[in-house]
Amino acid sequence: MKKSNKTFGWDPRNIGGRTQIVELMTNHQSSLRRIRPVLCITAPHPHVDSTRPRRSCLPGNGRDPKYAMVRATYRTISEMKRGLVNRSVPTTFELIDKLSANKKNNKHAVVEHIKNMTSLQSRLRRIETGNVYPQLHLAPT
To answer: Average per-residue pLDDT in the chain?
Structure first.
């Protein structure tokens, strides 16, 4: 008998199909019994940088005696209290009055809104009167 493909499986309603299904099950169980351990559980390798000596970010690798003052300054700065709040007035603080004055003086949006409203009202009046397309009054030539 041929092995099944994905479209047609073994049919358990006849003897040939049942035989094949039982054979597949027994082969699967025997394969599961014969499995050998695959994992080799050992301690993980140390990281590649674990044996590398730490280097200082100071000049002369932090050991040169002529950089003792630099090391002391670096240590002093690193131990200083951090997180101070800058309470000085921002440099652009004077612009607030200027911007608010400009905003009050800029009436362009309001003027455009009024123009749009009058235009829409005149269109509605023309629709009500039935004169949708206004006639153009041309001067005689």
So the answer is: 78
Give domain status of residue 43, yes or no: no
Q: What is the pLDDT of residues 50-77, one digit of tens each?
A: 777 766 665 556 567 787 888 788 878 7
**Number of continuous H segments (helices) and E segments (strands) in the chain:** 4, 0
Q: Which helix (H) or strand (E) holds 29?
A: helix 15-33
Provide the domain limits for residue 10.
Answer: 1-35
Which residue's structure tokens are 């603080």? 93
Q: Note whether 62 and 54 are within 8 A (CB).
A: no
Q: Which of 77, 40, 41 lies closest to 58 in space, CA to CA?
A: 77
Q: Is the pLDDT of residue 27 over 90?
A: yes
**pTM for the whole structure:** 0.25
CA dist., res. 125 & res. 131, Å (int): 9
Domains of the chain: total: 2
Is 61 inside a domain boundary?
no
Q: Evaluate whether 24 touches 30 at the Cβ level (below 8 Å).
A: no
* Gap between the Cα atoms of 87 and 84, Å rounded: 9
Residue 57 lies in a domain: no
